[in-house]
């Protein structure tokens, strides 16, 4: 390991929501003390059932939700101490890609407008430059420039997900958080997107944080897996180790729930 | 509880609005050269109009608690006793009209729901659309014209001359006779929307899976309608009852003024024109009270007709 | 298909009516305040083509009328002289779009008058008053709608977008405004303004009162749309690359409220036109001598006018197609 600090270091992160139904209802603890480190160029998968807090963690990292306590260090900077304008440069460096593009893309905008939106928000270049860059980015993710005028609903799920990736790349991020980005796609489309992501990682030196409920799929994509359960990371390790030697009972439960595991990385234990 | 808070809010809001108005009853007096500036000043002081706003609101609340609702300068007496008979008359008018409107709308709307795509359907659609587009004002004036032309009904007021001398039975008949025109105006004003709504909810209920299932079981159409569809349609209708009251009260204001029915409406207008502020507040509060009362009634009815709400509330 | 036809027909009718109101100065033969004391309640003059000698004229003409005896409203035609209808005649000055004008679409030679819709109690031409009154009544409705939807949109957006305390305050006040029967509230607010004010200010005040009293309903509806729009993933994504609140509202949230606002507008305009008519009818709105459809109808409160002079109903009858067209439009918009 080099002396350079890790890209992301999270320590003691908690998030509580006020309870539903009256003031005296107990608070819901979505994150109960998370410690996590992401090194540059790695891919980590956060795996857990719905309600385990994995999406909350993703949103806290992208600074879309305010954690209750704890710290997030990004490239040596205390992210939670930054607000408003001073946060902006970091917003560019962390991008979030969300589940199903049908709602993640404004249905009224055209493909090129969607991709150039981040540039517009940040005031980069003029209209023509932004458009040129948008077409470039579409090519990068494998969408023909001829589709620039299509609206999201005229595209397939996989194509929409490519569009979402192109939009995230517009600001040249270092960390890409993919929250259930593969849900609802066919297996063959999943494979195409996965190879696109791997290709981009090589070219742009990206770090990926996958968030998913699908342990098998994550086993194929990531190097390392962190299992989340009730707001905590209960187990973390290399993919092969998690599949062959699950230590936490919840990890074993997740593995047992997989109907048949065609995982090349880990043959099922008897 | 929520209703009480709302009522308190409305009282404060309307009090502030009305008190902020430029000029008051005595300001008009200043224009009269026979009344000296000093007299006006003394009068204002006597009725506490020179006091700061919070104090005036406090005084008004105290008088509200006594049932006086402040003091009318134009009548030279507390507002309460002026208001109660007017409120009673407005209630008589609106309750009669509501009852009649629902008695008309429910059977007609139900019948309409069972006659889809026929001459009756088209005729009712056209008729209700016409009535909906007819401004209330034109409707009221039209009925008045009918009364003036034919002389079938009295053209205004609530009682005939010599009402006081009539025997009890004749008096009731007299009032009922005077009720015909304003009630007709209100009923014609609100029935079209009601009928359309009843038809929609009954049609909805008739298309519901459990009703179609009942029909598939061979249960006779009549029994399907009355035993299954109508109870299911009752719920939205009761909610509508609460909502329709606001419109009814608004229209009643117009009807009362044009047909000189001695309800809240004419008193209200008169008070506005005379700048008699406490008398303006009276009808505002009374109408809010009526509306809230009606909504409460609707909620109670809903609880009574819908078993699901009863269990939810525990 | 039929919905489309209905929409086009409704729009065409509304466009025609509003254009006629705008061009009232040119279309109306007389000034709306011009009195003819010798012609109270003169009946509508029929356009004639055949004169007393039975000769046919291509150019229509009217006869002058004079009041008979002491009974108001009994008129006799003077058939000795025909007054042909002339087009583009000079007459009373008016302003159109800020420009002064004095040419009227049609008219007849003095001393005859052409009262196509009769005259009111001061001998003023009903048609001229109807056209000029439309300016007041129709545009009061439009302007009040813009105002009420504007305020409702702003408060509803702020309420839905920011939530929490702001939301609670705005929604509680909305409940307060909705707790009162609408007309009562309108009257109560009108009561706080001075009674007799010059017509131009009265018009603006009316628009303000009508528009501001009714912000609560649109605000609630807009809030609902904003609440769901705010939760869309693409709003979150835009936040993720640093979009400001203003940008989010402008680019992603407001466009979603457009459909709702349009449908609401078609519902509210006729309601506000009627509100102006009602207030002016009861003497709380625009006052004489400036005509509005409401104060023109006020004459009908006298039973002899109500029963004897049917042409005094003109503003009431003119309201029906206008309202019908707006309803048709709102129905077409909501079933789109």
Q: Can you walk me through this structure?
A:
With 270 residues, chain A is of the alpha/beta class. Helices cover 37% and strands 23% of the residues of chain A. With 314 residues, chain B is an all-alpha fold. Chain B has helices spanning 2-19, 25-30, 37-46, 53-65, 79-113, 119-133, 136-150, 168-207, 209-216, 221-258, 264-274, 277-305, 307-313, and strands at residues 71-72, 77-78. The model of chain B has no long low-confidence stretch (mean pLDDT 80). With 336 residues, chain C is an alpha+beta fold. In chain C, α1 (2-22) crosses α12 (314-334), α3 packs antiparallel against α4 and α4 runs antiparallel to α7 (216-230).
Distance between the termini of chain C: 11 Å
Provide mean pLDDT of chain A, rounded. Answer: 84
Spatial shape of chain A: globular
Number of helices of chain A: 10
Q: Give the chain pair forming the largest contact, with residue counts.
A: B-C, 51 and 40 residues
- SSE ordering of chain A: EEEHEEHEHHHHEHEHEEHH
Major sheet attributes of chain C:
3 strands, antiparallel
Low-confidence stretches of chain A: 263-270
What tags apply to this protein structure?
heterotrimer, A: 270 residues, alpha/beta, Rossmann fold, 2 domains, six-stranded mixed beta sheet, 10 helices, 37% helix, 23% strand, C: 336 residues, alpha+beta, MetI-like fold, two-stranded antiparallel ribbon, 12 helices, 5 strands
Short note summarizing the structure:
The complex is a heterotrimer of chains A (270), B (314) and C (336). Chain A contains 10 helices and 10 strands.
Question: Secondary-structure map with pairings?
Answer:
The complex is a heterotrimer of chains A (270), B (314) and C (336).
Chain A: E1 8-17, E2 28-38, E3 43-47, H1 54-61, E4 69-74, E5 77-78, H2 84-93, E6 94-97, H3 101-104, H4 111-122, H5 127-140, H6 157-169, E7 175-179, H7 187-204, E8 207-212, H8 215-221, E9 224-229, E10 232-238, H9 239-244, H10 249-256
Parallel strand pairs in A: 3-8, 3-9, 6-7, 7-8
Antiparallel strand pairs in A: 1-2, 1-4, 4-5, 9-10
Chain B: H1 2-19, H2 25-30, H3 37-46, H4 53-65, E1 71-72, E2 77-78, H5 79-113, H6 119-133, H7 136-150, H8 168-207, H9 209-216, H10 221-258, H11 264-274, H12 277-305, H13 307-313
Antiparallel strand pairs in B: 1-2
Chain C: H1 2-22, H2 24-27, E1 48-50, E2 56-67, E3 75-84, E4 86-96, E5 99-107, H3 126-162, H4 164-178, H5 182-191, H6 199-213, H7 216-230, H8 233-240, H9 245-281, H10 293-297, H11 303-308, H12 314-334
Helix pairs in contact in C: 1-3, 1-12, 3-4, 3-6, 3-7, 3-9, 4-7, 5-6, 7-9, 8-9, 9-12
């Amino acid at each position: 390991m080099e002396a350079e600090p890790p890209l992301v270091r999270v320590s003691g992160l908690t998030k509580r929501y006020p309870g539903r139904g009256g003031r005296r209802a107990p608070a819901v603890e979505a994150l109960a003390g998370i410690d996590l480190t992401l090194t540059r160029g790695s891919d980590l998968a956060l795996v857990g059932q719905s309600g385990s807090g994995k999406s909350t963690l993703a949103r806290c990292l992208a600074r879309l939700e305010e954690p209750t306590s704890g710290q997030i260090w990004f490239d040596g900077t205390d992210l939670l101490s930054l607000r408003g304008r001073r946060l902006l440069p970091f917003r560019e460096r962390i991008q979030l890609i969300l589940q199903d593009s049908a709602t993640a893309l404004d249905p009224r905008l055209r493909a090129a407008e969607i991709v150039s939106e981040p540039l517009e928000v940040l005031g980069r270049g003029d209209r023509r430059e932004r458009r040129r860059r948008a077409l470039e980015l579409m090519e990068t993710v494998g969408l023909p420039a001829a589709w620039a005028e299509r609206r999201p609903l005229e595209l397939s799920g996989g194509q929409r997900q490519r569009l979402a990736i192109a939009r995230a790349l517009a600001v040249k991020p270092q960390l890409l958080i993919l929250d259930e980005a593969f849900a609802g796609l066919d297996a063959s489309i999943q494979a195409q997107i996965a190879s696109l992501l791997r290709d981009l990682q090589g070219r742009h030196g990206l770090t990926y944080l996958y968030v998913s409920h699908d342990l098998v799929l994550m086993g194929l994509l990531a190097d390392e897996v962190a299992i989340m359960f009730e707001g905590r990371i209960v187990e973390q390790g290399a993919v092969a180790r998690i599949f062959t030697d699950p230590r936490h009972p919840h990890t074993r439960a997740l593995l047992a729930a997989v109907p048949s595991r065609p995982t090349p990385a880990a043959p099922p234990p008897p | 509880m929520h209703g009480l808070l709302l009522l308190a809010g409305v009282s404060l809001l309307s009090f502030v609005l009305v008190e902020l108005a430029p000029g008051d009853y005595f300001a008009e007096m200043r224009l009269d050269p026979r009344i000296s500036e000093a007299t006006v000043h003394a009068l204002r002081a006597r009725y506490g109009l020179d006091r700061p706003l919070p104090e005036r609101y406090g005084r008004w609340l105290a008088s509200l608690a006594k049932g006086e609702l402040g003091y009318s300068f134009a009548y030279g007496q507390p507002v309460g006793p002026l208001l109660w008979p007017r409120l009673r008359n407005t209630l008589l008018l609106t309750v009669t009209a509501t009852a009649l409107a629902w008695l008309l709308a429910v059977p007609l709307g139900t019948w309409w729901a069972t006659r889809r795509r026929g001459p009756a359907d088209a005729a009712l659609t056209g008729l209700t659309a016409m009535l909906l587009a007819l401004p209330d004002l034109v409707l009221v004036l039209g009925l008045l014209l009918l009364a003036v032309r034919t002389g079938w009904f009295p053209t205004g007021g609530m009682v005939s001359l010599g009402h006081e001398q009539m025997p009890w039975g004749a008096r009731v008949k007299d009032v009922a006779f005077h009720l015909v025109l304003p009630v007709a105006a209100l009923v014609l004003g609100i029935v079209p929307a009601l009928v359309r709504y009843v038809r929609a909810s009954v049609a909805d209920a008739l298309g519901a899976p459990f009703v179609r299932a009942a029909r598939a079981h061979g249960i006779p159409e009549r029994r399907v309608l009355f035993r299954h569809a109508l109870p299911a349609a009752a719920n939205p209708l009761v909610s509508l009852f609460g909502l329709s009251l606001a419109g009814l009260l608004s229209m009643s204001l117009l009807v009362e003024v044009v047909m000189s029915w001695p309800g809240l409406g004419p008193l209200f207008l008169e008070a506005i024109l005379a700048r008699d502020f406490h008398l303006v507040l009276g009808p505002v509060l009374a109408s809010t009270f009526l509306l809230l009362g009606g909504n409460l009634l609707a909620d109670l009815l809903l609880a009574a007709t819908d078993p699901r709400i009863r269990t939810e509330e525990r | 298909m039929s919905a489309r036809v209905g929409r086009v027909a409704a729009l065409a009718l509304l466009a025609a009516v509003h254009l006629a109101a705008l061009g009232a100065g040119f279309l109306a033969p007389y000034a709306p305040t011009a009195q003819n004391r010798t012609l109270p309640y003169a009946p509508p003059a029929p356009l004639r083509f055949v004169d007393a000698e039975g000769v046919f004229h291509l150019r229509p003409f009217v006869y002058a009328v004079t009041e008979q005896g002491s009974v108001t409203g009994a008129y006799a035609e003077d058939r000795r002289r025909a007054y042909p209808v002339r087009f583009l005649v000079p007459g009373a000055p008016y302003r159109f779009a800020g420009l002064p004008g004095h040419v009227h679409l049609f008219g007849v030679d003095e001393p005859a008058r052409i009262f196509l819709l009769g005259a009111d109690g001061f001998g003023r031409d009903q048609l001229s008053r109807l056209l000029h009154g439309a300016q007041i009544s129709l545009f009061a409705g439009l302007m009040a709608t813009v105002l009420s939807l504007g305020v409702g949109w702003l408060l509803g957006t702020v309420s839905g977008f920011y939530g929490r305390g702001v939301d609670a305050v705005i929604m509680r006040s909305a409940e307060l405004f909705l707790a009162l029967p609408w007309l009562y509230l309108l009257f109560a607010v009108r009561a706080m303004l001075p009674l007799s004010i010059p017509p131009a200010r009265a018009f603006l005040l009316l628009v303000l009162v009508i528009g501001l009293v009714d912000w609560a309903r649109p605000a609630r509806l807009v809030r609902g749309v904003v609440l769901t729009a705010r939760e869309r993933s693409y709003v979150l994504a835009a936040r993720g690359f640093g979009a400001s609140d203003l940008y989010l509202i402008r680019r992603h949230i407001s466009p979603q409220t457009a459909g709702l606002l349009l449908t609401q507008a078609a519902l509210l305009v006729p309601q506000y036109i009627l509100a102006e008519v009602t207030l002016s009818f009861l003497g709380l709105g625009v006052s004489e001598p400036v005509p509005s459809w409401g104060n023109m109808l006020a004459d009908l409160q006298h039973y002899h006018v109500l029963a004897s002079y049917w042409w005094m109903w003109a503003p009431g009858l003119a309201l029906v197609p206008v309202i019908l067209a707006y309803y048709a439009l709102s129905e077409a918009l909501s079933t789109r």
